[in-house]
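Box S1 | Example of a co-folding query
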Amino acid sequence: GLLTMVGTLTIWGYGGTLVLTSHGQALTVGALIAFLSYAGRFYEPVNQLAHMNDQLQVASTSAERVFEILDARPDIADREDAVTLKDPRGEIEFDRLYFAYGDNDPVLKDLTFTIHPGEMVGVVGPSGSGKTTLINLLCRFYEVTQGAIRLDGIDLRDIAVHSLRQNVGVVLQEPYLFQGTIAENIAYGRPDATQEEMLRATEAAYALDIILKEPDGFDTLVGERGIRLSGGQKQRLSIARAILKNPKVLILDEATSAVDSETEDKIRRALESLVENRTTIAIAHRLSTLRHASRIAVLSKGELLELGTIEELLALDGLFARHWTKQMTTASKPGDKAAVDAPLEKIARLTPQHTTLRTNDG
Ligand code: ADP
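Box S1 (continued) | Returned holo structure for adenosine-5'-diphosphate
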């Protein structure tokens, strides 16, 4: 930079003096200007060469990061003799399950219960009680510390990760949509799906209106993280994605965010068609969802406090019953919808006083 500036000044100084002193004999004004413009063109590529090193440095750092990711070995690896699931029934068994993140205190303690094929079990509990952790373990994002989780009697650690995740579908509170078309987002779990299959899945998820409303239909771009869609629309598309994938085991993390009642109704019906014929574990925040569950597991501080049908839990008169009745009595009139749909966590924030383990499975 300095050299080009000094160069230009020198040309102005020396050339200018020459033009003035010789009255244009030794050098004309035109020649001086031409010289300056040629010099400028010469400096340009020299400048580019100087900046090339910067670009090379940036590229090599980026390449290093890309290779770091490509070379990363996942913590969860298949065993050599890992089995591939073939049409599983969907029975899930937690057997004296303990889990701790790293060297911390265990967040799940001595969890033992079985979910039968096709059953829907609602999981409730105050926040921090280990609901998300339970789901992380079921997807095998972490290995259990002690005890085991079995799918159809096979320890998750003996199942090939790819095969396990193909048979487990997850619908999250905050559905993840990526930049692309609606079709690409729905077919994410099954890229080979036909147009007709996609249409059926979208219909079953009560999401056809989203597609019909857009001039580009399935080819509508959803924007980065689905920014162009509302929360309710994103949820229904993620349900369509799960229906298309057709997993035997479904994990449902119910959204806490409020949506208008019409959307709520659509999502509820979409979920009903989703859970049909699947083993479902639902982290439920609304009691109205729990009514659909065949059994409810109440977690507190990582322990299974209560397990049973709504009627059994009410008869037990424990943590669940107290909150259920509280919710009912706080409703201004019997069956008040707002109270029934209030996020359970708000009510269950109190720490339970009793810690006796009372479950169906003894
Ligand atoms: P819930 O879903 O019921 O709110 P979580 O399973 O998220 O509960 O959390 C249970 C406990 O585990 C909490 O005490 C939380 O702080 C802890 N925990 C959750 N995730 C991690 C993590 N990645 N590392 C360490 N501790 C965690």
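The first helix runs from residue 2 to 21. Residues 101, 104, 107, 125, 127-133 surround adenosine-5'-diphosphate (CB under 6 Å).
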